[in-house]
Request: fold
Amino acid sequence: MNREYLVPVRTTRCGALVLRTARVDGVGRVGLAFSGRRALEAAMGTATPAVEMSLGALQAMLLPLGVEEVEVDPCLVAHVARPATVGPAVLSGA
Reply:
């Protein structure tokens, strides 16, 4: 029997569900799966939507996207920090 995991998703404007992935240094993009709601919420927050699926189903969906690895119960999944837009330096006191 295949075990079911919680897989984080996001919903597009038109209502489609999209699997969430993460980037790991030295590995690249990885799929995410959690053994339970507590593990999901600890890593991604309480408002994270998720669907149940087996690891095999998740891997089958990610492989065509070039994602070959799945992290089960990662400790922290952080949002990517976008660099602030920086304008030209202004020097004063000349």
